[in-house]
Amino acid sequence: MTHPASGNVALATRDLKHVWHPCTQMQDHESVPLVPIVRGEGAWLIDAEGRRYLDGISSWWTNIFGHANPRIAAALADQASTLEHVIFAGFTHEPAIELAEKLVAITPPGLDKVFFADNGSSAVEVALKMSFHYWLNQGHGEKTRFIALSGSYHGETLGALSVSDVALYRKTYAPLLLTPFLTPSPDAYEGEPGENPQQTAARRLRELRTLLESHAHETCAVIVEPLVQCAGGMRMYHPDYLVGLRALCDEFSVHFIADEIAVGFGRTGSLFACEQAGVSPDFMCLSKGLTAGFLPLSVTLTTNDVYDAFYAEYNAGKAFLHSHSYTGNPLACRVALETLAIFRDEPVLDRNRKLAAHLAQRLAPLRDHPHVADVRQTGMIAAVELVADKATRRPFDSKERRGMRVYLHGLQQGVLLRPLGNVVYFMPPYVVTEQEIDLLVDTAIAGIERAVAG
């Protein structure tokens, strides 16, 4: 029997006395339960009283091979008994060296240099600073601006937030942020009537061309999440946009930054989303699935051309200026190596495609739901767009918090769903079974019925 002092209520009470949680209005927890998790098994989380929750969102899109994965845990324990950390300036270690070698081998061609950081936002910061500093070192100090997609999200440090288009954040922190140029997203959901996703991508590329014709001279880079704008509402678009983006960046001499933090490592059906367009960006940001949800780690990969722009005699003052205390942490690097080894040893992508097909089949009936405007999917990411009126796509008032109703219903049924506003999405760990997908979808459907009622 669980001791009361370590039960759910006791732990939640202790937490709420001192802990401030992310992306949370803390007053909500006067009525919304705070769930203390004590362990995980595969696709499941277990609370302090033994209640199980199916992790339908991979714990913020990080966990790909299951909680407490024994293979990764063993690698971590082995590394912890050897070397936990060492300064990464002037020193190095084999886990970081090997990880860099393996990442260069599996990412799109031309990404030959690896810069380590410790979270996704930091990887984006590195890419932004490195792009700006590259142009500065090349004698183009006038290039100080960035282009981002409407509806984009790239993290919550100030630089990453500056190239994000989330209204609430920009309204709140506007005085602290850079101002990017925004180009319309190629989001297929927002296509013109009768327009297919390829045509939407082509039209949006023409609009990007117009923007670059006016502003390329002051632009460092275009930053996008390839194929899926995740935190922006799981907006999805055709790979043709990436093909055209690469061509435009080359034509107008601006960098292409691919933020694959959420979409990398098999999430979209290929190891990296850029592969589906056959393109190599100038910078690729990776995190989340890199360590399968075990430890914070991120990398920014870039080209020899970018690296060479910083390589100079010390007094030239061209060195890249960025560091973190835990840069290249050996524990995280060893975990990442074991994550990549699982991709090497097991048919992960083949299995994901079968699971994705099953998920698509189960979600298909929702297309006819009177309050569902769209059901969309890219690999192991699927989303259901809830609306007040299907014919006009009029959204529900955000103040009604319909998505919260889905979340609460999920908790009651032992399923973790965390809608983005009125978008109910699915991003489960790759170890999920078809039966667990059935539970996810059945729970979501019942939650949607509850959410749209009244």
UniProtKB/TrEMBL annotation:
Binding site for pyridoxal 5'-phosphate: 120-121, 259, 324-325
Enzyme class label: transferase
InterPro entries, per the entry: Aminotrans_3, Aminotrans_3_PPA_site, BioA, PyrdxlP-dep_Trfase, PyrdxlP-dep_Trfase_major, PyrdxlP-dep_Trfase_small
A GO MF label: adenosylmethionine-8-amino-7-oxononanoate transaminase activity
EC identifiers of the protein: 2.6.1.62
Binding-site residues, substrate: 60, 153, 288, 323, 418
Subunit structure: Homodimer.
Protein name: Adenosylmethionine-8-amino-7-oxononanoate aminotransferase
